[in-house]
């Protein structure tokens, strides 16, 4: 090998190394850019929202525009809070979970028990399609089903139905995925002892997969907690705490939307968003923690 | 009938419930849109006239279809370099390290932020920035909406492609390293070729998500009922027009909004179906 050739080889090698380093630098830079919004968003919420948060904020109903306006004019803190939204969110999410969890788990077990069956494959595909349906379309559907025909007006029930259709596919898939991880020998042992099929499900499959199922449920709940669009078409909102599920009801995301549209209420936007974020993030983290522990 | 049979029956009953719900969804949307399609025919999809004036009502969905597609495609393009870098960071360069765990946790947090909070942040932080940069006098527009959409779909694109990238067999990579390839060359010749269909599926699914986003887009796209005249102009999306105009809608307008919902449903179902099909083929 003569020297010029050697130098040329070294040159290309250096260029290759340099290119490699350059791309690594870009990957690190873009990755940092990717996660910067989360820090900026949480920072903004805390900075603008912490001042309004107090006991009143949690236990009082939303003020009307006039009292908010006078408070601002007098330089006082806006009175009232988001209790009506918190109660409404609780009612609708609990109701949605009560509808979606049993049905979702039953379907999930069915898919796990009949992996190759045509009906199971079809159901799985359908649930995949449903998972991709935009939430506003679920709102429309729930409007057509419940608002128009069942409660004859906007209602918490209609809101729950839209949220439950949203949760259902998530619970179905997480149930199936969880059960797939349970060793088959466990089920076989139970069946070999002559245990009836329903007892195998209730006493073996569900308890063994409990943490996985629970994670799926929590993720589903944290996903629907922040939903606004479908509730605009179904629950509408209310300025008072309402326990009747056939009447219009508020929710925290709906209140944020109302505050956003009312210049007098701007100060309340950030504190309610902060509350909502904390709730969603805590649920998210609990579910991740459970998932990690059981792995 | 013995208890085993009853149990099996109950289990398959769930399947039927799901099928009935899905069929009911399509049925209600189709029935609800019939008046709109009867009045305007297929012109409904291609007409860009949206006029709610009583007596000469005319509704066409083109501005909203165009706004949805343009803002989602732009969002996908913006998110591409970011989420692809993040998935390489997680699945290749720093796979299994502490810093990767922190990054992946932050990406997960990004996925948990409600749409309306993204909208608020976009409205109060991103929009003033747009005004400062001289993009639109109000800062509203397709571009601003796409920016926020891009941030919203990054977590999905990242976690989907990171999973696929992390699955690439180590032997293949080691073989390339032993031939003297640099990290970049391994990524170019081994990782991307063997993971590309999964990565593409991940981007298709995130695109499907962008199509249906409502609140953040509603707060930033400008809500003008016309086909956007430029990337920085204002427009509207299918989901946003439903959210914005539903409250005061009845009769033909309501039916037109439901028809837009049906179209949105079909578009997202097709896009998601393609994405899931590619992933299923891989397994």
From TrEMBL, chain A:
GO cellular component terms given for this protein: plasma membrane
InterPro entries: MetI-like, MetI-like_sf, Phosphate_PstA, Phosphate_transprt_permease
Main localization, broad class: membrane
Taxonomic superkingdom: Bacteria
Pfam families: BPD_transp_1
Domain ABC transmembrane type-1: 86-287
Keywords: Cell membrane, Membrane, Phosphate transport, Transmembrane, Transmembrane helix, Transport
Cellular location(s): Cell membrane
GO molecular function: phosphate transmembrane transporter activity
Gene3D superfamilies attached to this UniProt entry: MetI-like (1.10.3720.10)
Transmembrane segments: 21-42, 86-113, 125-147, 153-172, 200-221, 268-286
Membrane topology, from the record: Multi-pass membrane protein
GO biological process, alphabetically ordered: phosphate ion transmembrane transport
Database matches in SUPFAM superfamilies: MetI-like (SSF161098)
PANTHER family named in the record: PHOSPHATE TRANSPORT SYSTEM PERMEASE PROTEIN PSTA
NCBIfam families in alphabetical order: 3a0107s02c (TIGR00974)
Family: Belongs to the binding-protein-dependent transport system permease family. CysTW subfamily.
Protein known as: Phosphate transport system permease protein PstA
Source organism: Mangrovibacterium diazotrophicum
From TrEMBL, chain B:
Stored CDD domains: TM_PBP2 (cd06261)
InterPro entries recorded: MetI-like, MetI-like_sf, Phosphate_PstC, Phosphate_Transport_Permease
SUPFAM superfamilies reported in the protein's UniProt record: MetI-like
Keywords: Cell membrane, Membrane, Phosphate transport, Transmembrane, Transmembrane helix, Transport
MF-aspect GO terms: phosphate transmembrane transporter activity
Subcellular location: Cell membrane
Transmembrane portions of the chain: 9-30, 64-90, 102-126, 138-157, 200-221, 257-279
Reported function: Part of the binding-protein-dependent transport system for phosphate; probably responsible for the translocation of the substrate across the membrane.
NCBIfam families registered for this protein in UniProt: phosphate_pstC
Database matches in PANTHER family: PHOSPHATE TRANSPORT SYSTEM PERMEASE PROTEIN PST (PTHR30425), PHOSPHATE TRANSPORT SYSTEM PERMEASE PROTEIN PSTC (PTHR30425:SF1)
UniProt-recorded name of the protein: Phosphate transport system permease protein
Organism whose genome encodes this protein: Mangrovibacterium diazotrophicum
